Each structure stands twice: as structure tokens, then as C-alpha cells.
Amino acid sequence: MPRFATFTLPLCAFSIVLCQKIPEVNAPGVSTRLPEAKCDFHVRENGPDGKLVTGVSLDTSLFYDITCKPSKGFCLRVSNCTVTGDEKGSVPYPIIDANGCTLEESLFGHVQYRTDFQAGIANPYPIRFRGASSAVIFYCQTTLEPKEGTKCEHFTCK
């Protein structure tokens, strides 16, 4: 079941849809589901340790902070992020690919993993879509995936 968190800021509105894929393991007599990703989302100023954003202008450097409840033997994965305006007919614009790598290097950083259950995306230059509304909807897929050995392995973006 998708989880929604919406943040409204004076200049922009940010939303994140936290989704998880829950594949089933097909083994005789066994049906295993991955745990649900229970995450909090915050928008911060100037990086992962910055203050929480209560208002924003187009010259504010932002950091999208995603923190999930730990689940033993699993790792957080953030992928397939898009941004869109909130007006009817707006089309999502891809910014992060399936590996967590940015598709728009001048606007967004790659997904950064601080811990096994904490990730973030830098946005040094906030965006705005043309139109009557200044709202921006930010969507990312978040999943908990089985840990390989003792460490969480993530794709290295180039």
C-alpha cells in the first residue's frame, strides 16, 4: 500500500509517494514477502544536516531526506524519482533512474546513502514549473531489499 507525505512550502509544494515493491518468493510451500518500507520524508536546507525547510525560494539549496524504520537483514533502496507540477495534465519528469542515479546532473544529485536505512537527494537549484501553481510534486520509489552478506550494496553512479 503506497504511503503519502505532502509538504507545502510558501514558494513550492513538495510531495513524496513512498512505495514499496513486495515480490513473492516462489518456492514449494513457501510464500515470503519483503517488509513494508516505513519511512519519514523531510526537506532540509543545504544538505543532510541542515535545518528543516519551512519556506523556500529559488536560490535555496535543498536536500530531500528519507529515513526508514530499520528491518533486520534488509537495506533501503531509493529509485525512479520524478517531479511534476500539480496542475491537471502535468506529466511526471524523470530525475532519478532505477539505479538511484540522477538524470539531471545540473539540478539533482545521485541518491546518497548515509546508513542502511537513510538516504537523500541533493537539489542545489530548486525547480518550478510554468503555470498558475508553484507546487512541485516529488515522487520516489522506496523499497526494502534483502541485504547481501553484512553490507548494503548500492549501484555506483558515474
UniProtKB/TrEMBL annotation:
InterPro entries: CUT_C, Cuticlin, ZP_dom. The keyword Zinc does not apply. It comes from Mesorhabditis spiculigera. Keywords: Signal. Residues 1-158 form the ZP domain. This is ZP domain-containing protein. Pfam families: CUT_C (PF25301). Residues 1-19 form the signal peptide.
